[in-house]
Design brief:
three-stranded antiparallel β-sheet; alpha/beta; 12 strands; disordered C terminus; five-stranded mixed β-sheet
């Protein structure tokens, strides 16, 4: 069921394999077993791609409800007697989308656990994690850590306003970036400098809200992930001839002295946010 939902969200077996952590051949075998159990075809050919059949689409709806009920049942059983406090820290990139319903599910099934949420920048959050003020951390990954519960990888994207840049191009690319240190800023500048593309910093600041304002106004382009695409912000057009970008890596870490509920929260976030990264219907904006 998880593989079927992942395929519905990603649209390709290869990307599904990345999301569920299996090989493409294993994903294909899973889908074939599911079809055998259902007694009906769930996928069909569409050119060189595979797409869901009408029956597959119907089963995806049931699969989502089954997985949600299964998740809540296990969380409820485990969380009834759990208590204590969990400090959760995460970057602004993850403050919307699937996060609120995931936290709501955890809070309802762990009524005696106090959940303290802090949204901020990776550097400050990492310091709080090291000091013990944060128990579960989701932040930009700078190196391999021994306490990593999961690593989320997403392609970086050049983004701009839906209507493009407002001013007439003068040969210098206007950029909106966060203040240093920032891995997205470093990737953008590094890619442009490697291709000798002239640029200028048109907007900078500590929060995504200011960056979003500059992009929506059409005075700059920026680099984030697809989580930031919505009705106002879109992928930059090819005519801008912007260079390739690396993948963004986010590390989900749990303190070694954390109690079991913190590990359950990390597992919930890992699975829920991976699927959220593939969904075309997030649409909550770069300001998250």
């Amino acid at each position: 069921m998880q593989t079927l939902v992942a395929f519905a969200e990603t649209g390709t077996l290869a990307r599904t394999a990345e999301v569920v952590g299996r090989t493409p051949s294993a994903v294909t075998a899973q889908m074939q077993r599911l079809e055998a159990l259902a007694g009906i075809s769930l996928l069909e050919a569409a050119g060189r791609r595979r797409v869901l059949t009408e029956a597959g689409e119907r089963l995806v709806g049931h699969a989502r409800r089954i997985l949600a009920a299964n998740r809540e049942a296990w969380l409820s059983l485990a969380g009834t007697a759990a208590d204590g406090r969990i400090g959760l820290g995460l970057t602004q990139d993850f403050a919307g989308g699937a996060l609120p319903p995931l936290l709501n599910a955890f809070a309802r099934t762990h009524p005696r656990v106090r959940l303290d949420l802090r949204v901020g920048r990776s550097l400050e959050l990492s310091k709080d994690f090291a000091a013990g003020r944060i128990t579960v951390l989701l932040a930009a990954r700078s190196k391999v850590e021994s306490d990593e519960a999961a690593v989320l990888q997403e392609p970086m994207r050049w983004l701009c306003a839906k209507d493009g840049l407002a001013g007439k191009p003068d040969g210098t690319l206007p950029l909106a970036v966060l203040d240093a240190p920032c891995s997205f800023r470093e990737a953008a500048l590094g890619a442009l400098e490697a291709e000798a593309i002239p640029y200028r910093i048109a907007s900078t600041g500590p929060s995504l809200a200011g960056l979003y304002a500059a992009v929506c106004a059409g005075i700059a382009v920026t680099v984030r992930t697809a989580r930031s695409i919505d009705g106002n912000v879109v992928a930059a057009p090819r005519k801008l001839s912007l260079p390739r970008l690396p993948r963004a890596e986010f590390s989900l870490r749990v303190r070694r002295d954390a109690e079991e509920p913190a590990h359950r929260l990390a597992e919930l976030l890992s699975s829920g946010l991976r699927l959220d990264a593939t969904s075309p219907a997030r649409g909550t904006g770069i300001h998250r």
